Amino acid sequence: QPELGRPRRNCYTLPGFDFSYGLYLPRTDGGVPEAIGRWNTVKPRTSVRKMPRDFITMNLGALKAGYTTAREFNLYYKLKDIRQKDDEYSRFKRSPPNVPADFTYGIPTRSSTPIFDLLQHKYKELWMEQQRAHTAAKRAEKKKVIILQQVRETRTTFLRKHPPPAKEESFWHLPHLEKV
Asked: PANTHER family of this UniProt entry (predicted)?
């Protein structure tokens, strides 16, 4: 019910000043004196891992028992729940890697850079030579493109390269144009 003479509020009232939000967790440890006095170590949990089902063995058993339908197979799975063994589940226990006795795992170390080459700035010079060769190749390629763009084929250049065949002279004339 709204207060008398006032509209209904569309929000909740806040709790009092002594209210604390969240969960209240009472402290069970004795603080620093208890930590100095004795050690309360947490016992490690031994969780029993549920191994996955061994369907190959269960299917073989169901076939030997004479089951053929999917319903019969499911009933057999519920009756005989065979799980994989721990050593079968691990791929390393199934087939350990074949490595030589003196094999070292990891990335081989890089050979050290000769200090004499560093003092002579040899690597800088090699890089500069590569950059010069690269720019020279780019410049030569650009020149080729410019030359190809400048030379255009016109009718005159085409006729110079491929002259038309010479006309054979005909000795026939119209009769009325011949000299009498």
From this structure: CILIA- AND FLAGELLA-ASSOCIATED PROTEIN 77
